[in-house]
Amino acid sequence: MRQTNSLYTNRHGQRPLPPVPEIILTAENDNQSDDNNSNNYNTNTNPGTNTSELNKMDAEKQEAKNLQMEFEWVLKEEVHQLLKKLKVVLIECAHRFPVPLYENEGKKTEKFILSVSPPEQLKAILTLTGDTITQADISFKLSKPPYQIQRTSITQDSPWKLQQVQDAANHLQQAINHIDDVDDSYHFKTSDEVLHVIGNILEALQRGRLSLIIPKKKPIDELIKGRNMKCLAPNLSEDLAVSFYLQSHKLIIAVYQLTNIQGTMRFDSCQAEASVNWLNEVLLFLTAGLQLCQQLKDKISVFSLYKDFTVGSRSSSALSY
Questions:
Q1: Which of 91, 85, 70, 76 shows the shortest CA–CA distance to 292?
Q2: Average pLDDT for residues 279-298, to the nearest whole number?
Q3: Model confidence at 43: pLDDT above 70
Q4: Residue 215 carries which DSSP code?
């Protein structure tokens, strides 16, 4: 025990800590002051930056909300309004056709004179009833010896049908049917739905318009052996062909004369035309219908860029407009 106590008794007293130099205290205080200033600076600048970003985010949200509201209005109201307007235009177009189409009785009869100068070169006096040439007197001058006048005719017993008219009428009827397939109370939910309907109508109208302005080209041998050539009385020789077709607002007759020159077949052609008033009106209405479709397609295509745009994609409070 003594030995143990002597350890404690012999222990030296702890030396007092030396005082902290004043310069160190001053430096620490300066550092704390700098830290405080730095914190104050960050505190003062961050709110400004966050506010700017928040304002930008709010503006973007509001813009998206406005676009969604406009999109839903277009789907709910404007699409149906345009379809109704388009149907009125297309029915007016249908009423111009000389064939039965959408409550149009058709069978309109008109007389035309198609000739060139001099008239001996080519002349046709004809009656057009609906989409059919029911009577025609045709004369043209041969382009090879003996250069005489060739005559033939079309009679009611064997009329000449203009298939372009019926084709255009069928395409127009299809376009109207696509509109009728959409119920007035139906609510479109996506841009793809609208684009599908408008696309079908556009295609039908384009086919109808092209049927009238761009006739199908046929090889000369197909024309000579064609069904319509059997409508002519008297029949023409196998080196002659006659063709009636529509191009834009005109009815055209073309005569083709084959010639064998040293074993090579070539043909000369001559054509005459006359303007058809109802064709001009039909093309105007078809063009107006195409423009209406394209306007709606362009507008919907803008919204289709936003793939998440569907009816009901906004909150219920934003739907009250």
A1: 85
A2: 95
A3: no
A4: P
- 16 prior amide bond cis, ω within 30: no
- Whose structure tokens read 């839903």? 72
| Exposed/middle/buried for residue 143 (C-beta within 10 Å: 0-12, 13-18, 19+) | middle
Q: Is the separation of the CB atoms in 96 and 285 below 8 Å?
A: yes
Q: What is the largest CA-CA distance in the chain?
A: 163
Strands 149-154 and 109-115: unpaired
pTM of the entire predicted model? 0.74
The Cα–Cα gap between 202 and 27 comes to 82
Confidence at residue 72, expressed as pLDDT on a 0 to 100 scale: 80
- pLDDT, greater one: 89 or 184: 89
Give the rounded distance of the alpha carbon of 207 from its chain centre: 12
- Which runs of E-coded beta strand occur in 119-249? 122-129, 132-141, 149-154, 160-161, 232-233, 240-247
